[in-house]
């Protein structure tokens, strides 16, 4: 090679990648020795320049690939240039991956062919591809969408699922920009997210609509991680298609809305049926009562009594059915009051002694400590006892019924025991279910809808009590325990020492009733008929307690409370209202009331609230 050409080739020393030039036998395509290598080749391979001049490509190429060299040279002669991958072996025997970019050149009038090759070290890339291939085996079978992006946001890997949900094949998306799967209006948002990813390294639960090949939208939830390693940096994306889930959620919302509408319709129906059924029953029972007392034959009187009994049975069934529905709609509320169960026990004893006598049954009734005053929902407790005693009478053909009420340690214990038919073991698990009956045959012996024990259990739960049952073929025993508050001497009479109270109530009847309730308690009572008067009196006087009706004229009670609380946080305020929903109570307390008393209320309840607040 002449010195001129050699000087020209020296320009190749400025290239960072190794550059090789070698001869080629034009007839055999066998490569000859190198005629030039640049400094990068010398540094990378470990041979000196002079040593290289005695070597050919077959000396530095992986022996497993040498046989391919003549084929590659043949291709170069046909296509002028070629890019291929191989392995080079350094002087020390170390192998590394290279990407060769080669082409044939001619040197002036030299008849020989020469090949110039630029060798790029692709070891890191091959390692990354190896790691990606390992991951690919897992990702290809994943039920989530998985893809990897290079730092130019081009897709370098995408699994079948990710491509499929977007309407593509993986090959169609490889090399494409990540934005291909997004709508143009979200490009800026996507750029901001990628910038944030570089800063934080991880983005979690990114919900964004994706664009399918067809142009349709997909609801996609993605997690994106920025992976920085010695082999380079990539972005890993895992995605989940939420479209089906959102359809299910939407269907559930629609179903819920329909259910709410249906419940409202049921509520309206129950309100109507309550009126429509009870009104004629009242007329029927009243008429039968008059007819019984009229001047009629003994036979007709018996007929009237039979009709009255049937009408009363119907009334009880209607009441239970309506109560069952009201409980399900949470319309039944507890109404606590102070009561002695002594009189109630005696009334029940008299009533069911007569019923037991009519069936030739022995009836025993016992009580202890019922003279004490307790606080509970009397109507619920009576309903519980009557349901249990009715069942005992209904299912006992011979023998006895025992009934006891005992008050001890702030617990009211009710026991009803009978010698009736007992309860099948199979039926016990459904005993307190709605419409549950042991005998459902066409020839069933006992009447009823199967609501008594359902209501009993619901009432007991509302009163925070419990019920247990023991049964056999020789009879059944129910034990009910209900916690109650026992009135102490402090409860019975409190000296309020002329405490001053302002009552704000625009209903004259309710105002007089409240004053009557407080008449014996030594209060100094002042009144206001509307919100303006109430606030004016508050500013002119000092009160120990404010009783504030909410639905009053001029300024409603809620606004009056707020105005007072801007000036004074210490004076106790009891909000009183017929609005009794939990959200109403929350509003009153939030406005500044210390407590809330729902209408209608008893004297005992009013005194109890006042005592608590003034203390």
Automatic annotation (TrEMBL):
Residue numbers of 4-aspartylphosphate PTMs: 549
The keyword Phosphoprotein is assigned to this record: yes
Keyword annotations of the record: Kinase, Phosphoprotein, Transferase
Ranges where the PAS domain occurs: 131-201
Residues of the Response regulatory domain: 500-614
Presence of keyword Transferase: yes
GO molecular function, one term: phosphorelay sensor kinase activity
Coiled coil, from the record: none
Cellular-component GO terms for this entry: plasma membrane
Top-level taxon of origin: Bacteria
Catalytic reaction annotation: ATP + protein L-histidine = ADP + protein N-phospho-L-histidine
Name of the protein this chain belongs to: histidine kinase
């Amino acid at each position: 090679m002449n010195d001129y050409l050699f000087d020209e080739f020296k320009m190749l020393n400025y290239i960072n990648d190794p550059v090789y030039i070698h001869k080629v036998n034009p007839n055999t395509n066998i490569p000859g020795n190198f005629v030039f290598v640049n400094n990068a080749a010398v540094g990378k391979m470990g041979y000196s320049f002079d040593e290289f001049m005695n070597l050919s490509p077959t000396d530095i190429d992986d022996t497993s690939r040498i046989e391919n060299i003549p084929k590659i040279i043949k291709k170069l002669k046909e296509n002028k240039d070629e890019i291929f991958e191989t392995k080079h072996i350094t002087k020390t025997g170390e192998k590394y991956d290279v990407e060769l970019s080669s082409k044939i050149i001619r040197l002036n009038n030299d008849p020989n062919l020469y090949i110039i090759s630029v060798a790029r070290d692709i070891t890191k890339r091959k390692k990354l591809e190896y790691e990606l291939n390992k991951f690919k085996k897992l990702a290809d079978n994943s039920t989530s969408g998985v893809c990897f992006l290079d730092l130019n946001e081009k897709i370098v890997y995408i699994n079948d699922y990710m491509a499929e949900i977007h309407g593509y094949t993986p090959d169609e998306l490889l090399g494409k920009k990540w934005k291909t799967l997004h709508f143009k209006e979200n490009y800026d948002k996507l750029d901001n997210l990628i910038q944030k990813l570089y800063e934080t390294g991880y983005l979690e639960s990114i919900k964004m609509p994706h664009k399918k090949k067809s142009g349709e939208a997909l609801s996609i939830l993605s997690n994106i991680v920025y992976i920085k390693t010695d082999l380079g940096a990539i972005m890993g994306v895992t995605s989940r298609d939420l479209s089906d889930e959102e359809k299910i959620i939407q269907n559930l919302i629609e179903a819920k809305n329909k259910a709410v509408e249906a419940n409202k319709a049921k509520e309206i129906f129950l309100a109507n049926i309550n009126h429509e059924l009870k009104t004629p029953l009242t007329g029927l029972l009243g008429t039968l009562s008059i007819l019984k007392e009229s001047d009629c034959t003994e036979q007709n009187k018996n007929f009237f009594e039979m009709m009255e009994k049937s009408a009363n049975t119907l009334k009880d069934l209607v009441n239970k059915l309506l109560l069952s529905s009201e409980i399900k709609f949470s319309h039944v509320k507890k109404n606590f009051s102070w009561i002695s169960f002594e009189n109630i026990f005696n009334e029940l004893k008299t009533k069911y002694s007569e019923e037991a006598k009519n069936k030739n049954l022995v009836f025993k009734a016992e009580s202890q400590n019922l003279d004490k005053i307790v606080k509970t929902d009397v109507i619920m407790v009576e309903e519980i006892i009557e349901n249990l005693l009715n069942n005992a009478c209904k299912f006992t053909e011979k023998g006895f019924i025992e009934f006891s009420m005992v008050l001890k340690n702030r617990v009211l214990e009710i026991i009803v025991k009978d010698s009736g038919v007992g309860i099948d073991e199979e039926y016990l698990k459904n005993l307190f279910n709605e419409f549950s009956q042991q005998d459902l045959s066409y020839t069933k012996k006992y009447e009823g809808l199967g609501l008594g024990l359902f209501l009993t259990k619901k009432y007991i739960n509302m009163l925070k009590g419990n019920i247990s049952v023991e049964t056999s073929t020789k009879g059944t025993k129910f034990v009910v325990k209900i916690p109650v508050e026992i009135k102490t001497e402090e409860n019975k009479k409190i000296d309020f020492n002329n405490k001053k109270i302002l009552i704000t109530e625009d209903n004259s009847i309710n105002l007089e009733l409240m004053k009557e309730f407080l008449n014996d308690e030594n209060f100094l009572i002042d009144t206001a008929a509307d919100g303006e008067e109430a606030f004016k009196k508050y500013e002119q006087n000092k009160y120990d307690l404010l009783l504030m009706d909410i639905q009053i004229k001029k300024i409603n009670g809620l606004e009056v409370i707020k105005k007072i609380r801007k000036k004074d946080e210490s004076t106790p305020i009891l909000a009183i209202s017929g609005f009794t929903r939990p959200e109403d109570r929350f509003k009153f307390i939030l406005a500044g009331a210390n407590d809330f008393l729902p209408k209608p209320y008893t004297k005992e309840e009013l005194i109890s609230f006042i005592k608590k607040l003034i203390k």
